[in-house]
Amino acid sequence: xxxxxxxxxxxxxxxxxxxxxxxxxxxxxxxxxxxxxxxxxxxxxxxxxxxxxxxxxxxxxxxxxxxxxxxxxxxxxxxxxxxxxxxxxxxxxxxxxxxxxxxxxxxxxxxxxxxxxxxxxxxxxxxxxxxxxxxxxxxxxxxxxxxxxxxxxxxxxxxxxxxxxxxxxxxxxxxxxxxxxxxxxxxxxxxxxxxxxx
Length: 198
Prior knowledge:
Blueprint: H1 3-6, H2 14-29, E1 32-33, H3 35-59, E2 63-64, E3 67-68, H4 72-100, H5 107-110, E4 112-114, H6 116-155, H7 161-182, H8 191-195
Helix pairs in contact: 3-4, 6-7
């Protein structure tokens, strides 16, 4: 937490300000700092803006006899995207260069984008969800869903085996009946469904 927001005299007291800066620097080191993601997103948006501008010029970004050409409005949107993202990237790089030259670190370099605890929570959701999507291509939707639901119920919900199996199998069975039997919409199936004749 930023000490300067709790103490109104922190901006007047250099010792308190230095303590707040050290605390922010520690928070940034304890997780993912804000500078890296901001620079990466700005670079990606610059690439996207350049792509929009280039494609707009290819389609025609001028004014024709019957009005604007196909790329007229996307061209200017791409330019605005380039300008705003370029400003963010230049600002981030200027902060980084100033720190390399020995100047006090700017707030952008010391703020934490995400702490270690928050990052662990994100990864606890992202990794199983990614494995679920990959496994769906091999074993189908239903078997993957049973494993995913069971994992979250056991690992994060701390449920016993009986409710875990009941819910995970029950949800997958309900989805199967609703989509395959009721709506007649085929969902991805794997070798287990093939053995059962579906």
